[in-house]
Amino acid sequence: MSKPTPLTIKESSLSAQIAEWLEDQMIYNDRLQAGEAKSPDGYFMKLCKVGTPDRFAVIHGRIIFIEVKRLGEKPSNQQLERHEEIRQSGAIVLVVDSFNNFVSEINSIRAGFQHNTRKVKLYD
Known about the structure:
Elements: H1 11-24, E1 28-31, E2 36-38, E3 44-46, E4 55-59, E5 62-68, H2 77-88, E6 92-96, H3 99-112
Parallel strand pairs: 5-6
Antiparallel strand pairs: 1-4, 2-3, 4-5
């Protein structure tokens, strides 16, 4: 008798759940476009650097990058290199493989941030 295979959610479905939850929490977020696009004149251009995380969110003025993986999957070496580069710039990078893992990580981060209500005047 074979062992049952656990159900796993696709990365795209998990990313959509994350986006919906962030929207419900009124947290600005978006998906980062990886890959290439063809310009009108026929040239291909890269949309993001290789290994860039899938999503980002801004919480109390801090950017959090979110790498979404299938349950149990790990980031590639290129992704790990990009994550380290991003962390060196002062941002937070989360690697999540389940919705509960994501909510737990984000709530932990939110609890550690001070809410910044200071308004900055950018020009006269």
